[in-house]
Amino acid sequence: MTARPELRGDVAVLVPAAGLGVRLGPGGPKALRLLSGEPLLVHALRRVAAAGVGCVVVAAPPGEVDAVAQLLAGIGPVTVVPGGDTRQASVAAALAAVPANFDIILVHDAARSLAPPALVVSVADAVRAGHDAVIPVLPVVDTIKEVAASGVVVGTVDRTVLRAVQTPQGFRRAVLAAAHDAATDQHTDDAGMVEKLGVPVFCVPGDELAMKITRPVDLMIAEALLARTLAP
Ligand code: C5P
Q1: Would you state the pLDDT for residue 28?
Q2: Quick check: 120 and 48 in contact, CB under 8 A?
Q3: What is the DSSP letter of 183?
Q4: Considering the domain boundaries, does residue 98 fall inside one?
Q5: 209 contacts 109 by C-beta, under 8 angstroms
Q6: What are the CA-CA distances from residue 73 to residues 66, 94, 101, 166, 227 (Å)?
């Protein structure tokens, strides 16, 4: 897909990057772990910037705000704010820093470092086309079972109706803000909060490159993709 940067200037991207990355093993905050010699956050933001968006706000680990701002200085205008104790709190902190003139807001995990610019464009365009909430999804390849605490299978879920959800997720600003204002419990993504408001969430095709880097094996897969220049 060819990005038309002149149409993305009204898009702001929030990047929650304040997680500790415990599942990745010992080391610093996940967004600052290296992938082929560069922090995950740098990989993610370079691809976001290539989509021509007008505003980027990163929620960094509270003790790393200055270091992260320096790290990202070469990428373009990026605002860095201290993140919160949860992903949700980090997104809310980043949203509060977006200038009022941005009406389309994307939320993109730093951990999906190889998500291509075309995916950013496709989500933003679906919001602009009239969907108040947009998520990129992929079919689920594994068989999924519900398992009781005892370790015994309760049942098998119909895989054909399931989708694995990625980021960036896109929203009309008022919808995202209302969802955060109304949320009383913690959600693992922003669309989950929007669903609670009763707002329809529209799906667009996801991209395998937008895989989430969570465990050591994910880092190895991402490095292999980069080495084969499968992830531009
Ligand atoms: O923990 P999880 O893998 O779901 O984190 C998804 C994203 O949310 C990561 O990019 C992580 O840095 C971010 N996060 C955050 N603030 C937290 C926890 C997670 O910005 N307190």
Answers
A1: 78
A2: yes
A3: -
A4: yes
A5: no
A6: 11, 18, 23, 27, 25
In angstroms, rounded to a whole number, what is the distance separating the alpha carbons of residues 53 and 8?
5
Task: Provide the CATH number for the domain around residue 45.
Answer: 3.90.550.10
Q: For residue range 145-171, list pLDDT tens digits in order.
A: 999 999 999 999 999 999 999 999 999
Place 232 in a pLDDT band, splitting at 50, 70 and 90: low
Domain encompassing residue 184:
8-136+165-230
- Which one-letter amino acid corresponds to residue 144? I
Q: Ligand 1 center to residue 15 CA distance, Å?
A: 9
* Ligand 1 pocket, residues with Cβ under 6 angstroms: 16-19, 30-31, 59, 83-87, 90, 109-111, 188, 214
CA 152–ligand 1 middle distance (angstroms): 31
Ligand 1 mean position to 59 CA, how many Å?
9
Residue 60 Cα to ligand 1 midpoint, Å, equals: 10
- The model's pTM: 0.94
Q: Which mutation among 15, 33, 90 tests ligand 1's pocket best, with the greatest number of atoms within 8 A of CB?
A: 90
- Which of 43, 81, 87, when mutated, tests ligand 1's pocket best, judged by the most ligand atoms within 8 Å of its CB? 87
Q: State the total domains in the chain.
A: 1
Task: Tell me how far the alpha carbon of residue 188 lies from the centroid of ligand 1, in angstroms.
Answer: 9
148 found inside a domain = no
DSSP class of 51: T
- Asked if residue 39 is part of any domain, the answer here is yes
In a domain, 58, yes or no: yes
Do the strands 104-107 and 11-16 form a parallel or antiparallel pair, or are they unpaired?
parallel
